């Protein structure tokens, strides 16, 4: 079905998206909001954020496709009510997220974080390799990305536990669900990987109390959203020696200010929101599929539930 896709983002390249969509569907035109002359001609929007001034003039929109796996960059209250909204999940994003999680887990497990510091101090301290059985990994969030992360970490030999809102049975993984099972989950692992959706309920979930309930010398890896972590609580627990180290891809303020206390803590590695990326070439087929679904009234892939907030 031919048509036009409204594009609006302050971080994505409209030309790259237009080319990726055109290569698969020459009848589909991706138009950057700055070049729009007839807003009524658009029935589908591909957005990181709405154009300045909002979507009011785009009266004929049937659906919105987020340019992110999350939707926290969109203020849902500013979107036209009732329009279906989809997250963007593509296999490349999942693979890059999984790679990041596995890399971070191994770096802490094999002590590379400590050896990097020892090397800089010109120190040689031999130790025996650790056993994976003594290093269970807990995954917070077992959705599209967390489920894939949990399964790959299990596949490379770590015992894995997982926690989510509803119960997700996954082969070989000990799963916990809901607030009542959170304490047991927090006691179940040595490294915790956060891949939760950010909602009112999960904001600040990595805090003094929950991280304090993790076994001594645990590791925290946050690749969900910066809002999941209470940064001052992590700094305090690292200084106290309770948390042995952390790898953080997402922070409360991005870019992280140069004077952020984490840069002074050698136990904490900050990466600049690089865990997962959406590439136009791999994600274009999903956008096109959702465009076609929106035009025929079929349910979108990766539809957001506004009541749940993810
Ligand atoms: P998803 O499929 O929606 O999964 C979210 C998970 O969070 C689900 O397992 C959900 O539980 C769980 N959850 C939500 N509220 C909860 C609560 N109150 N208690 C316990 N569990 C709760 O999302 P996804 O696509 O996997 O994305 C996960 C996160 O990754 C998002 O925050 C996204 O923004 C982030 N992300 C980061 C990067 C990066 O570069 N760092 C890139 C892409 C995405 P149920 O399954 O029971 O609903």
Describe this entry's structure for a reader.
The protein is α/β, with parallel strands linked by helices and 310 residues long. Helix content is 28%, strand content 17%. The protein has eight helices and twelve strands. The strands form two sheets. The protein has a seven-stranded parallel beta sheet. A five-stranded parallel beta sheet has the order 2-1-3-4-5. Helix 1 crosses helix 8. It starts with a strand and ends in a 14-residue tail after the last helix. It binds NADP nicotinamide-adenine-dinucleotide phosphate. The site of NADP nicotinamide-adenine-dinucleotide phosphate has 31 residues, from helix 2 and helix 4.
In short:
With 310 residues, this protein is an alpha/beta fold. The protein is 28% helix and 17% strand.
């Amino acid at each position: 079905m031919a048509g036009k896709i409204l594009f609006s983002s302050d971080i994505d390249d409209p030309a790259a998206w237009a080319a990726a969509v055109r290569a698969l569907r020459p009848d589909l035109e991706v138009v950057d909001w700055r070049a729009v002359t007839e807003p009524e001609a658009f029935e589908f929007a591909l957005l990181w954020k709405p154009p300045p001034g909002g979507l009011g003039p785009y009266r004929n929109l049937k659906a919105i496709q987020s340019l992110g796996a999350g939707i926290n960059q969109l203020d849902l209250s500013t979107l036209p009510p009732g329009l279906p909204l989809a997250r963007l999940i593509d296999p490349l994003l999942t693979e890059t997220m999984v790679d990041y999680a596995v890399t971070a887990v191994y770096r802490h497990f094999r002590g590379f974080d400590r050896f990097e510091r020892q090397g800089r101090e010109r120190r040689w301290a031999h130790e025996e390799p650790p056993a994976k059985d003594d290093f269970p990994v807990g995954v917070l969030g077992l959705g599209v990305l967390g489920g894939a992360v949990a399964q790959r970490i299990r596949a490379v030999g770590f015992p894995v536990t997982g926690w989510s809102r509803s119960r997700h049975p996954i082969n070989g993984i000990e799963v916990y669900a809901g607030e009542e099972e959170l304490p047991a989950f927090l006691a179940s692992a040595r490294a915790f990987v956060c891949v939760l959706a950010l909602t009112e309920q999960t904001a600040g979930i990595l805090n003094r109390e929950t991280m304090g309930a993790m076994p001594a010398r645990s590791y925290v890896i946050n690749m969900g959203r910066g809002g999941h972590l209470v940064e001052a609580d992590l700094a305090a627990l690292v200084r106290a020696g309770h948390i042995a180290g952390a790898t953080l891809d997402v922070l409360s303020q991005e870019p992280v200010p140069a004077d952020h206390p984490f840069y002074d803590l050698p136990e904490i590695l900050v990466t600049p929101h690089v865990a997962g990326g959406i590439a136009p070439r791999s994600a274009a087929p999903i956008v096109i599929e959702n465009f076609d679904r929106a035009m025929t009234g079929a349910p979108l892939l990766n539809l957001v539930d506004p009541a749940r907030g993810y």
